[in-house]
C-alpha cells in the first residue's frame, strides 16, 4: 500500500469533468455485491479523468456503449485514470464489492442483519469509481435489488419511483433524488425493520411523509425521535425561514456506526444511540442528545446539503454552522443557560486540549492527510463558537440577514467558508477582514485583563492584552477580533451600566459589549463612584482563556447575584479552580473558606433552576485542571486536589445536601424539563451524600441502581456505587448486567461506568472487561464506552506503571486493521505525551514508536503519530 500524501487547501483545482447524472444499479449480496454505474460526464477543464476507487474489483468499463480497451486506462490501488475522452459522454462501470468483510464501516457494509452505507467523507469510492469530491454535484437514480425475505425494505435518497418482484425470491426498488448532490450524501439501506410513520405539513404546504426504521421490537423507542424531528422541522421554519424540500424524510437506526449520525439527503442514517430512547433504557441526557442530533442532521438539509462544501478543507462551513444551529434549537426549546454551559465545557475540556496538541489546526485546516482525522472538536465546536461570535457581533437580525443572502447567492452550490463570511459581511455592511483570522489561525487565544480604580478621580481603567501561543506550523500569530460581553456590579450585587463610550455598546443579550482587535488596548471610564466588580466574557462570548483580576470575594458576589445564569455558574467554577490550583501548587488537600461554603450553601437553596444548581455542584474534573499544566503535569497532586475538594464539599454541606435531597422527588415517570432538572440536582446531592457517608447510603444507592423503570435513576446510582466503591458495588454491577444483557445501549453504560471510575483498580477492571463476552472490537459504541472513556480518565490512564498505556496500545493495534477511524479516535491521549514527566513520556513515546512500526499502518494513525513525534 502506498503511503498517503498530504493535501493542501491552497492546491484546490476544479475537476476536469462534471458528472450531471448517475444511474446506479446495485445488486446486493453479502459477499459479492455488483454495482453498475452509468454516468454522464462533461468536460470542464483540461486533463485526464481521474476517478477515485478503493478496494473495488473492476469488471468492465464502457464509454458511449463501447468496451474500453485496457491500454486506454490505468488502475491503481486508489484511482482509475482514463485519457483521451470526448467532451461529453456516457460511461458505464461495473464493479464488485464484499460488504460482509467491511469492518471499517465506510462504504457499503453490514450492520447486524442490514446493509447500509456511510459515504462521508470519502466512502463512496469504496462503492464504485467516481469523482468522490464534494464539488461534483449530480442527480442520482438508484436501483437496489436484494432477497425479499431478508431485506423487505430497500431505501435510497429522494422519492420512490418504482418497485417490484424479481426472480429467485428477490425484489427491487428504484429511487430518484431530484436535488443534485455530492457523492458523500448518497445512501442506501436494505433490511428488515420496524417502521414508525408520521407526517409533517411544511409552511410551504408540502406534506412530508416521515419514517423511522429501527430493529424489530424497538418501535416504541423511536417515538421520541419522531417528535424531535417534527420539532426540528418547525423550528427551522420559524427561526431560519427554512422549510423541507422533499416529500419524504427517512431515518434509519443502525447499531454499528463510527460516528453519531449522517445527513444523507432524505435518508439519514443514525447510530441507534441517537434514535432509541424510552425512560426504561435512556437517561435524561440521552433524550437531550437524541433531540439535538436529530436536529443537527435535519438542519444539514440546508446547511450542508442544499449549500455544500467546495472541498473538505471547508468542512466547518457546514459543521460549525450546523452545530451552532442545533445549539440554538436546543436552547430555544430547553434551558438556554444549561445548553450554553454544556457547550462551554466541551470547548474547555476537549477543544482547548486539541488546540494545545500536535494536531492543532484552524477551524479551516490547511493541510490534511486523512480527512477522517478532521471531524474534530475544533472544526465542529470551535467552528460553532466562531459562528456564535458573528452572531454576537451582528445581532440576531443581522445574522439572519446574512443567512438569507448566503442562501440567495449559493443555493445549489458547493462553496467555501469565505463565501459564507462574504455574505454576512455584504448583508450587514460590516467589515469582517480581521475577523477572518479565526478561520486561518489555530490555537487558543489568552486574554488578560487588569483593572485599576482611582477613587479620587473616580476613574476606572482597564487594560487588555491578547496573545495566541504558537502551534505546530504556525509560529507567528496575529491579534484576533474578540467580542467580550460583560456586566458590572456594585458591591451589593446590583448591575450598573458603565457610562457608554464609542467602544462599548449595549448588547441585545443585556450585557455590554467591548471588542478587542489589538494585542493591547485599554478603556477608561470616568464618573465611576465606586470600584465595580466586572464579570467578563459573559456567556463565554469568545473561545479564549481568560485571566481576570477578580478575587474570591468578587466571585462569591457574582455567584450569588449575577443576572445571567451562566455567569453564576462560571463564578462557582472559578472559586473551585482557584482552590484546586492552590492545592496542586502546594501539594495539599483543597480547602474552601467559610464564606465560600456559605456562598455555595446559599446557591444550593436559592430559587434557581435545579439544572443550573446541578451544574454549579459539578466540580471541575482532573482533565479540566490538567489543562493548566503543560509540562511535568503533577498527576498525584491533581488527584489529591480533586478528590479532597469533593470530600470537603460533601462534608461541609452534608446537611444541606440531605435537606435538598429529601425535598426533591425523583418523579420517575415525568419527562418534563422541570422533572429532569430535579433529577439532575438529586443526583448531585446523592453523589455528595454517599461520598460523605458511604456506609449509610449504600443500601439506598443499591436499591435505586437495581430498580428498573427510569434509566436516569438507575445509571445515576450505578455511577455513584462504582465511583465511591460503595459496599454494594459488586452486587449492583451484577444485577444491572443481568437485567440489561440484551439491550446493547444500556450495556454500554455498564461498561462506561467502570471505565470512568477514579478508583485505582480501574486499569485492572478494564483489562478484564475486554474479555467479557459482551465486549466486541467490532462495535464502535462498545469500544468508545469502555476504551474512549478509560483513555479520558486521565488519573487512571496515566497510572505509574504504564499499564494503561499498554492496554490502549494493544487495542489500537487491533483496530488499525479492523477499523482505522475508531483506532485513530482512541489515540488522542497519546498525542499529549510531552505534557508529562520523563518516565511517562518515555513509556508513551515507546507506544507511539511501536504503533508506527505496524505493518499496514492506517493513514489515519500514520498522520497523527507522525505529528505527535515531530520535533
Ligand atoms: N456529517 C456527519 C455529522 O456531523 C458526521 C459523520 C457521520 C461522519 N459519519 C461520519 C464523518 C463518518 C466522517 C465519517 O452529522
Ligand atoms: Zn454535522
TrEMBL record:
Gene source species: Pseudidiomarina terrestris
Coiled-coil residues: none
Domain Peptidase M1 alanyl aminopeptidase C-terminal: 554-869
Keyword Membrane found: no
Similarity remark: Belongs to the peptidase M1 family.
Occurrences of domain Aminopeptidase N-like N-terminal (ranges): 22-185
Reactions that this protein is recorded to catalyse: Release of an N-terminal amino acid, Xaa-|-Yaa- from a peptide, amide or arylamide. Xaa is preferably Ala, but may be most amino acids including Pro (slow action). When a terminal hydrophobic residue is followed by a prolyl residue, the two may be released as an intact Xaa-Pro dipeptide
Superkingdom, taxonomy of origin: Bacteria
GO biological process: one example: proteolysis
EC top class named in words: hydrolase
Name of the featured protein: Aminopeptidase N
Cofactor: Zn(2+)
The keyword Glycosyltransferase appears for this protein: no
Listed InterPro entries: Aminopeptidase_N-like_N, Aminopeptidase_N-like_N_sf, PepN_Ig-like_sf, Peptidase_M1, Peptidase_M1_dom, Peptidase_M1_pepN, Peptidase_M1_pepN_C, Peptidase_M1_pepN_C_sf
Domain called Peptidase M1 alanyl aminopeptidase Ig-like fold: residue spans: 443-548
Keywords: Aminopeptidase, Hydrolase, Metal-binding, Metalloprotease, Protease, Zinc
